[in-house]
Protein backbone atom coordinates (compact mmCIF):
# COMPACT_ATOMS: atom_id res chain seq x y z
CA UNK A 1 0.00 0.00 0.00
CA UNK A 2 1.44 3.34 -1.03
CA UNK A 3 -0.55 5.35 1.50
CA UNK A 4 -2.80 4.84 4.50
CA UNK A 5 -5.69 6.82 2.97
CA UNK A 6 -6.93 7.33 -0.54
CA UNK A 7 -6.19 11.05 -0.32
CA UNK A 8 -2.51 10.36 0.22
CA UNK A 9 -2.55 7.74 -2.50
CA UNK A 10 -4.19 10.06 -4.99
CA UNK A 11 -1.69 12.78 -4.19
CA UNK A 12 1.05 10.50 -5.48
CA UNK A 13 -0.74 9.66 -8.72
CA UNK A 14 0.31 11.27 -12.00
CA UNK A 15 -2.48 12.93 -13.94
CA UNK A 16 -3.81 10.16 -16.23
CA UNK A 17 -3.87 12.28 -19.39
CA UNK A 18 -3.85 10.98 -22.91
CA UNK A 19 -0.04 10.77 -23.11
CA UNK A 20 0.70 9.14 -19.73
CA UNK A 21 3.89 7.08 -19.82
CA UNK A 22 3.67 3.38 -19.01
CA UNK A 23 6.41 3.63 -16.41
CA UNK A 24 4.50 6.34 -14.54
CA UNK A 25 1.27 4.35 -14.69
CA UNK A 26 3.00 1.24 -13.34
CA UNK A 27 4.33 3.11 -10.32
CA UNK A 28 1.00 4.74 -9.42
CA UNK A 29 -1.40 3.19 -6.91
CA UNK A 30 -4.22 1.20 -8.46
CA UNK A 31 -7.77 2.29 -7.70
CA UNK A 32 -10.79 0.02 -7.85
CA UNK A 33 -14.14 1.64 -8.63
CA UNK A 34 -17.44 0.19 -7.46
CA UNK A 35 -21.04 1.28 -7.85
CA UNK A 36 -22.70 1.81 -4.47
CA UNK A 37 -26.35 0.79 -4.57
CA UNK A 38 -29.22 1.10 -2.10
CA UNK A 39 -29.61 4.88 -2.39
CA UNK A 40 -31.30 5.46 -5.76
CA UNK A 41 -34.18 3.73 -7.54
CA UNK A 42 -32.19 3.85 -10.77
CA UNK A 43 -29.94 1.04 -9.51
CA UNK A 44 -32.89 -1.36 -9.65
CA UNK A 45 -34.24 -0.45 -13.09
CA UNK A 46 -34.34 -3.16 -15.79
CA UNK A 47 -30.96 -3.79 -17.43
CA UNK A 48 -32.45 -4.89 -20.75
CA UNK A 49 -32.04 -3.36 -24.25
CA UNK A 50 -35.77 -2.66 -24.63
CA UNK A 51 -35.87 -0.41 -21.53
CA UNK A 52 -34.67 3.20 -21.47
CA UNK A 53 -34.45 5.05 -18.18
CA UNK A 54 -35.82 8.58 -17.83
CA UNK A 55 -35.07 11.28 -15.27
CA UNK A 56 -36.91 10.50 -12.03
CA UNK A 57 -38.30 13.15 -9.64
CA UNK A 58 -35.55 14.03 -7.18
CA UNK A 59 -33.31 11.66 -9.21
CA UNK A 60 -35.08 8.77 -7.48
CA UNK A 61 -33.34 9.18 -4.12
CA UNK A 62 -34.72 6.59 -1.70
CA UNK A 63 -35.99 8.07 1.58
CA UNK A 64 -34.00 5.97 4.02
CA UNK A 65 -32.20 6.30 7.32
CA UNK A 66 -28.48 7.09 7.69
CA UNK A 67 -26.15 6.58 10.60
CA UNK A 68 -25.61 10.34 10.74
CA UNK A 69 -29.32 11.18 11.17
CA UNK A 70 -29.30 11.15 14.97
CA UNK A 71 -26.87 14.04 15.16
CA UNK A 72 -27.68 15.87 11.92
CA UNK A 73 -31.48 15.58 11.90
CA UNK A 74 -32.70 14.18 15.23
CA UNK A 75 -36.23 15.54 14.71
CA UNK A 76 -36.43 14.22 11.11
CA UNK A 77 -37.26 17.68 9.78
CA UNK A 78 -34.86 17.82 6.86
CA UNK A 79 -35.36 16.71 3.27
CA UNK A 80 -34.01 13.29 2.17
CA UNK A 81 -31.46 15.00 -0.10
CA UNK A 82 -30.17 17.13 2.78
CA UNK A 83 -29.63 14.02 4.90
CA UNK A 84 -28.00 12.12 2.04
CA UNK A 85 -25.57 14.94 1.22
CA UNK A 86 -24.58 15.16 4.89
CA UNK A 87 -24.01 11.41 4.95
CA UNK A 88 -21.90 11.58 1.78
CA UNK A 89 -19.77 14.26 3.39
CA UNK A 90 -19.39 12.02 6.43
CA UNK A 91 -18.20 9.12 4.25
CA UNK A 92 -15.47 11.35 2.83
CA UNK A 93 -14.51 12.93 6.14
CA UNK A 94 -11.00 12.21 7.53
CA UNK A 95 -12.45 10.50 10.58
CA UNK A 96 -14.61 8.10 8.59
CA UNK A 97 -11.97 7.20 6.00
CA UNK A 98 -8.80 7.28 8.10
CA UNK A 99 -8.16 3.54 7.98
CA UNK A 100 -10.10 2.59 4.86
CA UNK A 101 -8.24 4.16 1.93
CA UNK A 102 -11.57 4.93 0.26
CA UNK A 103 -13.36 7.92 -1.22
CA UNK A 104 -16.82 8.49 -2.69
CA UNK A 105 -18.23 10.68 -5.45
CA UNK A 106 -21.74 11.16 -6.74
CA UNK A 107 -21.90 11.74 -10.49
CA UNK A 108 -24.96 13.30 -12.09
CA UNK A 109 -24.61 11.56 -15.46
CA UNK A 110 -26.60 13.09 -18.32
CA UNK A 111 -27.07 11.72 -21.81
CA UNK A 112 -27.20 14.40 -24.50
CA UNK A 113 -30.49 15.20 -26.22
CA UNK A 114 -31.48 13.65 -29.53
CA UNK A 115 -28.91 14.20 -32.29
CA UNK A 116 -29.23 13.95 -36.06
CA UNK A 117 -27.33 10.66 -35.99
CA UNK A 118 -30.03 9.20 -33.71
CA UNK A 119 -32.70 10.22 -36.21
CA UNK A 120 -30.83 8.66 -39.14
CA UNK A 121 -30.23 5.40 -37.30
CA UNK A 122 -33.92 5.19 -36.40
CA UNK A 123 -34.83 5.89 -40.03
CA UNK A 124 -32.65 3.23 -41.70
CA UNK A 125 -32.42 0.71 -38.85
CA UNK A 126 -29.42 -0.25 -36.75
CA UNK A 127 -28.12 -2.92 -39.15
CA UNK A 128 -28.02 -0.53 -42.13
CA UNK A 129 -26.69 2.27 -39.95
CA UNK A 130 -23.77 0.19 -38.70
CA UNK A 131 -23.00 -1.31 -42.11
CA UNK A 132 -23.15 1.83 -44.23
CA UNK A 133 -24.61 5.13 -43.10
CA UNK A 134 -22.62 5.57 -39.87
CA UNK A 135 -19.42 5.73 -41.97
CA UNK A 136 -20.68 8.71 -44.00
CA UNK A 137 -20.90 12.37 -43.09
CA UNK A 138 -24.41 12.92 -44.48
CA UNK A 139 -27.05 11.74 -46.93
CA UNK A 140 -27.10 14.93 -49.03
CA UNK A 141 -29.83 16.43 -46.87
CA UNK A 142 -28.89 15.87 -43.24
CA UNK A 143 -25.40 15.99 -41.73
CA UNK A 144 -24.55 13.80 -38.75
CA UNK A 145 -20.74 14.09 -38.67
CA UNK A 146 -20.14 15.28 -35.08
CA UNK A 147 -23.90 15.43 -34.87
CA UNK A 148 -25.68 18.45 -33.46
CA UNK A 149 -28.95 18.38 -31.54
CA UNK A 150 -32.22 18.18 -33.43
CA UNK A 151 -35.08 20.51 -32.44
CA UNK A 152 -36.34 17.65 -30.26
CA UNK A 153 -32.89 17.32 -28.72
CA UNK A 154 -32.83 21.05 -27.96
CA UNK A 155 -36.17 20.72 -26.13
CA UNK A 156 -34.82 17.73 -24.19
CA UNK A 157 -31.72 19.68 -23.15
CA UNK A 158 -33.81 22.66 -22.04
CA UNK A 159 -35.99 20.29 -20.04
CA UNK A 160 -32.88 19.29 -18.07
CA UNK A 161 -32.50 22.90 -16.91
CA UNK A 162 -36.16 22.96 -15.83
CA UNK A 163 -35.52 19.74 -13.91
CA UNK A 164 -32.46 21.14 -12.08
CA UNK A 165 -34.26 24.34 -11.10
CA UNK A 166 -37.26 22.43 -9.76
CA UNK A 167 -35.25 19.70 -8.02
CA UNK A 168 -32.93 22.19 -6.31
CA UNK A 169 -35.94 24.15 -5.06
CA UNK A 170 -38.40 21.36 -4.25
CA UNK A 171 -36.09 18.55 -3.16
CA UNK A 172 -33.11 20.57 -1.88
CA UNK A 173 -31.05 18.61 -4.39
CA UNK A 174 -27.57 20.16 -4.49
CA UNK A 175 -26.31 21.45 -7.81
CA UNK A 176 -22.92 20.12 -8.87
CA UNK A 177 -20.14 22.68 -8.42
CA UNK A 178 -18.19 21.18 -11.34
CA UNK A 179 -19.27 20.18 -14.83
CA UNK A 180 -17.41 17.77 -17.12
CA UNK A 181 -18.44 17.32 -20.74
CA UNK A 182 -17.56 15.44 -23.91
CA UNK A 183 -16.09 17.59 -26.72
CA UNK A 184 -18.67 16.36 -29.24
CA UNK A 185 -21.13 19.03 -30.38
CA UNK A 186 -24.30 17.38 -29.08
CA UNK A 187 -22.88 17.21 -25.56
CA UNK A 188 -21.54 20.77 -25.60
CA UNK A 189 -24.97 21.99 -26.75
CA UNK A 190 -26.81 19.91 -24.13
CA UNK A 191 -24.57 21.07 -21.30
CA UNK A 192 -24.96 24.70 -22.38
CA UNK A 193 -28.75 24.51 -22.57
CA UNK A 194 -28.99 22.60 -19.29
CA UNK A 195 -26.84 24.87 -17.13
CA UNK A 196 -26.19 28.27 -18.70
CA UNK A 197 -28.56 30.79 -17.13
CA UNK A 198 -29.82 28.30 -14.57
CA UNK A 199 -31.49 30.12 -11.67
CA UNK A 200 -32.91 28.76 -8.42
CA UNK A 201 -34.88 30.98 -6.02
CA UNK A 202 -33.10 31.38 -2.67
CA UNK A 203 -30.28 29.01 -3.66
CA UNK A 204 -26.79 29.68 -5.03
CA UNK A 205 -25.97 28.39 -8.50
CA UNK A 206 -22.33 27.45 -9.15
CA UNK A 207 -20.56 29.37 -11.94
CA UNK A 208 -20.97 27.84 -15.38
CA UNK A 209 -17.47 26.83 -16.49
CA UNK A 210 -17.60 23.26 -17.83
CA UNK A 211 -14.37 21.38 -18.45
CA UNK A 212 -14.06 19.50 -21.74
CA UNK A 213 -12.65 15.98 -21.36
CA UNK A 214 -11.55 13.77 -24.25
CA UNK A 215 -11.82 10.64 -22.12
CA UNK A 216 -15.62 10.85 -21.82
CA UNK A 217 -16.28 10.84 -25.57
CA UNK A 218 -18.56 8.31 -27.22
CA UNK A 219 -17.09 5.01 -28.39
CA UNK A 220 -14.30 5.86 -30.80
CA UNK A 221 -13.82 5.01 -34.46
CA UNK A 222 -15.65 4.37 -37.75
CA UNK A 223 -18.84 6.35 -36.94
CA UNK A 224 -18.39 9.91 -38.19
CA UNK A 225 -20.91 11.16 -35.63
CA UNK A 226 -18.23 10.42 -33.01
CA UNK A 227 -15.41 12.35 -34.74
CA UNK A 228 -14.99 15.72 -33.06
CA UNK A 229 -14.34 19.11 -34.61
CA UNK A 230 -11.26 21.24 -34.02
CA UNK A 231 -10.33 22.96 -30.79
CA UNK A 232 -10.63 26.28 -32.63
CA UNK A 233 -14.21 25.52 -33.71
CA UNK A 234 -15.18 24.51 -30.17
CA UNK A 235 -13.62 27.66 -28.67
CA UNK A 236 -15.37 29.89 -31.18
CA UNK A 237 -18.79 28.27 -30.76
CA UNK A 238 -18.68 27.51 -27.03
CA UNK A 239 -16.46 30.21 -25.48
CA UNK A 240 -17.56 29.58 -21.87
CA UNK A 241 -16.11 26.06 -21.87
CA UNK A 242 -12.62 25.31 -20.55
CA UNK A 243 -10.28 22.80 -22.19
CA UNK A 244 -8.42 20.25 -20.16
CA UNK A 245 -4.63 20.49 -20.32
CA UNK A 246 -3.18 19.03 -23.51
CA UNK A 247 -6.39 19.23 -25.55
CA UNK A 248 -5.25 18.93 -29.17
CA UNK A 249 -6.32 21.15 -32.07
CA UNK A 250 -7.36 18.21 -34.26
CA UNK A 251 -9.02 14.95 -33.30
CA UNK A 252 -6.18 12.52 -32.61
CA UNK A 253 -8.32 9.72 -31.13
CA UNK A 254 -10.84 8.84 -33.84
CA UNK A 255 -9.90 6.13 -36.36
CA UNK A 256 -11.95 5.65 -39.56
CA UNK A 257 -11.22 1.92 -39.70
CA UNK A 258 -11.26 0.60 -36.11
CA UNK A 259 -14.20 0.75 -33.70
CA UNK A 260 -13.46 0.77 -29.96
CA UNK A 261 -14.86 -2.16 -27.96
CA UNK A 262 -16.94 -1.78 -24.81
CA UNK A 263 -14.02 -3.11 -22.77
CA UNK A 264 -11.62 -0.57 -24.29
CA UNK A 265 -14.16 2.18 -23.74
CA UNK A 266 -14.49 1.15 -20.08
CA UNK A 267 -10.71 1.38 -19.62
CA UNK A 268 -10.82 4.90 -21.04
CA UNK A 269 -13.62 5.85 -18.64
CA UNK A 270 -11.60 4.41 -15.74
CA UNK A 271 -8.81 6.80 -16.71
CA UNK A 272 -11.32 9.63 -16.44
CA UNK A 273 -12.25 8.40 -12.95
CA UNK A 274 -8.55 8.32 -12.03
CA UNK A 275 -8.31 11.92 -13.18
CA UNK A 276 -11.52 12.89 -11.37
CA UNK A 277 -10.60 11.39 -8.00
CA UNK A 278 -7.01 12.62 -8.22
CA UNK A 279 -7.62 16.19 -9.28
CA UNK A 280 -11.12 17.14 -8.11
CA UNK A 281 -10.82 16.36 -4.41
CA UNK A 282 -12.99 19.25 -3.22
CA UNK A 283 -16.21 18.14 -4.92
CA UNK A 284 -18.23 15.25 -3.54
CA UNK A 285 -20.71 15.78 -6.40
CA UNK A 286 -19.97 16.48 -10.08
CA UNK A 287 -21.99 16.52 -13.27
CA UNK A 288 -21.06 14.69 -16.46
CA UNK A 289 -22.69 15.39 -19.82
CA UNK A 290 -21.81 12.54 -22.15
CA UNK A 291 -23.19 9.75 -24.33
CA UNK A 292 -25.22 6.57 -23.96
CA UNK A 293 -22.15 4.53 -24.82
CA UNK A 294 -19.96 6.40 -22.35
CA UNK A 295 -22.47 5.90 -19.54
CA UNK A 296 -22.73 2.19 -20.38
CA UNK A 297 -18.92 2.01 -20.29
CA UNK A 298 -18.97 3.73 -16.90
CA UNK A 299 -21.49 1.18 -15.64
CA UNK A 300 -19.31 -1.64 -16.99
CA UNK A 301 -16.24 -0.23 -15.24
CA UNK A 302 -17.92 0.08 -11.83
CA UNK A 303 -20.13 -3.03 -11.89
CA UNK A 304 -23.44 -1.16 -12.18
CA UNK A 305 -26.30 -2.80 -14.11
CA UNK A 306 -26.09 -1.55 -17.71
CA UNK A 307 -29.34 0.43 -17.76
CA UNK A 308 -29.86 2.32 -21.02
CA UNK A 309 -30.81 5.99 -20.95
CA UNK A 310 -33.28 7.86 -23.13
CA UNK A 311 -31.93 11.06 -24.73
CA UNK A 312 -31.84 13.98 -22.31
CA UNK A 313 -31.94 11.75 -19.22
CA UNK A 314 -30.04 12.45 -15.98
CA UNK A 315 -29.17 9.63 -13.57
CA UNK A 316 -27.27 9.55 -10.27
CA UNK A 317 -24.25 7.23 -9.92
CA UNK A 318 -22.59 6.86 -6.52
CA UNK A 319 -19.04 5.54 -6.90
CA UNK A 320 -16.64 4.19 -4.30
CA UNK A 321 -12.92 4.37 -5.04
CA UNK A 322 -10.52 2.28 -2.99
CA UNK A 323 -6.79 1.69 -3.17
CA UNK A 324 -5.83 -1.89 -4.00
CA UNK A 325 -2.41 -3.52 -4.08
UniProtKB/TrEMBL annotation:
Protein name: Histidine phosphatase superfamily
Entries under Pfam families matching the protein: His_Phos_1
Domain of life where this protein originates: Eukaryota
GO terms, molecular function: phosphatase activity
Taxonomic classification: Eukaryota, Fungi, Dikarya, Ascomycota, Pezizomycotina
Cellular component, GO annotation: cytoplasm
Coiled coil ranges: none
Amino acid sequence: MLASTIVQALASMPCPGLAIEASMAASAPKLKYTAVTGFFKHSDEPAIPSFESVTLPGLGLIDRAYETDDTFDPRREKQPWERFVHYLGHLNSPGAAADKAVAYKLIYAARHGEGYHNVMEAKVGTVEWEAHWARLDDDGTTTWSDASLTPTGIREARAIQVFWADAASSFKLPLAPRHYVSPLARCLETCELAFMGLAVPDAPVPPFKPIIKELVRERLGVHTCDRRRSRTWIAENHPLFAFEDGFAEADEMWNPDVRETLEEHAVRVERFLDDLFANDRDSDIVSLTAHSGTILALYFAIGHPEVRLAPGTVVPVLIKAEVVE
